[in-house]
């Protein structure tokens, strides 16, 4: 019986996070791009994949631990077909290794793609929010309460503004759950000696960066707008010397439009 703990180089008491970290570390080390498609590496790659598939699943790990304890396995050697020198057994092993090798490659590509798309879903709205905030603070539009627009226009703008704000909050919440850790996790990990979060930023830090970015964009935009006096260049009656409610209304709407276009682009690539 193969000892999957030795395969992943972790202890039998390793946490789920430690097992996942060990698997990722070995998977990167044994990646085909780094080993010129070595057959020996492919076999090792398939072995760590099999180990992670068992140990990464709580139910399968529990059943495996019972079998491991029952036979008192202390090393990765066994008397099964995997250790047989028979030519048919070797051919069968090779087929299994190749199949698992391809499965893991596909899984890694899918996970990387999923991770990339999740990051894009956070970055695109944030960048769009910063750019739109900078733009409206430069131009300082005064259209919402202008006599040149009607009630219907205002209703449409307010509706899209509300939808845009809800959309931004949802995107930020998804990103926080995926890419940040809660500061309370640090406190609990110190108390119960569990593994510290591997994510780089806490939720407080990310919140501070988002708010700071908005403040900077708004301040820089106002400075540029006042310096060049852009209101006198384009339709003066539609623009104000001081920021109006439009400065708050339009950025969420712009984010909603940009993110909708990005979502369509992602679906077309799928």
Describe the structure.
- The protein is an all-alpha fold and 270 residues long.
- The protein has two domains: 4-83, DnaJ domain (Helix Hairpins), CATH 1.10.287.110; 114-269, no CATH class.
- Helices cover 73% and strands 1% of the residues.
- It has a two-stranded parallel ribbon.
- Residues 72-82 and 186-197 have low confidence and may be disordered.
Task: Draw up the topology in text.
Elements: H1 4-8, H2 16-29, H3 32-35, H4 39-55, H5 58-71, H6 87-139, H7 151-179, E1 180-181, H8 183-192, E2 201-202, H9 203-228, H10 246-269
Parallel strand pairs: 1-2
Helix pairs in contact: 2-4, 4-6, 6-7, 6-9, 6-10, 7-10
Q: SSE order in H/E notation?
A: HHHHHHHEHEHH
Q: Please give the share of residues in helix.
A: over 70%
- Ends: how far apart? 41 Å
Strand content: under 5%
Residue ranges: pLDDT <50 for 5 or more in a row?
Answer: 72-82, 186-197
| Quaternary structure classification | single chain
**Count of separate structural domains:** 2
Mean pLDDT: 77
- Spatial extent as radius of gyration: 28 Å
How does the overall form come out from the CA principal axes?
A: elongated
Largest sheet: 2 strands, parallel
Structural class: mainly alpha
**Counting H and I runs of at least 4 residues, what is the number of helices?**
10
Instruction: Count the E strands.
Output: 2
Query: Widest sheet: strand order?
Result: 1-2
């Amino acid at each position: 019986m193969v000892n999957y703990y030795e395969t992943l180089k972790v202890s039998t008491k390793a946490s789920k996070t430690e097992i996942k970290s060990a698997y990722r570390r070995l998977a990167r080390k044994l990646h085909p791009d780094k080993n010129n498609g070595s057959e020996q590496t492919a076999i090792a790659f398939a072995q760590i994949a099999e180990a992670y598939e068992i140990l990464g699943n709580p139910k399968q790990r529990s059943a495996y631990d019972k079998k491991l304890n029952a036979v008192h396995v202390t090393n990765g050697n066994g008397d099964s077909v995997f250790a047989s020198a028979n030519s048919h057994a070797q051919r069968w092993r090779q087929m299994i290794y190749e199949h698992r090798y391809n499965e893991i490659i596909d899984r890694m590509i899918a996970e990387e793609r999923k991770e990339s798309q999740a990051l894009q879903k956070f970055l695109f709205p944030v960048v769009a929010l910063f750019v739109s905030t900078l733009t409206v603070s430069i131009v300082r539009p005064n259209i919402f309460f202008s006599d040149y627009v009607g009630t219907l226009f205002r209703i449409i703008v307010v509706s899209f503004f509300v939808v845009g704000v809800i959309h931004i909050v949802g995107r930020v919440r998804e990103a926080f759950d995926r890419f940040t850790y809660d500061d309370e996790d640090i406190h609990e990990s110190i108390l119960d000696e569990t593994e510290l979060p591997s994510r780089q930023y806490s939720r407080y830090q990310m919140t501070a960066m988002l708010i700071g970015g908005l403040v900077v964009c708004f301040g820089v935009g106002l400075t540029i707008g006042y310096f060049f006096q852009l209101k006198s260049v384009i339709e003066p009656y539609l623009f104000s010397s001081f920021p109006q409610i439009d400065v708050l209304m339009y950025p969420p709407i712009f984010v909603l439009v940009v993110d909708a276009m990005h979502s369509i682009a992602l679906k077309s690539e799928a």
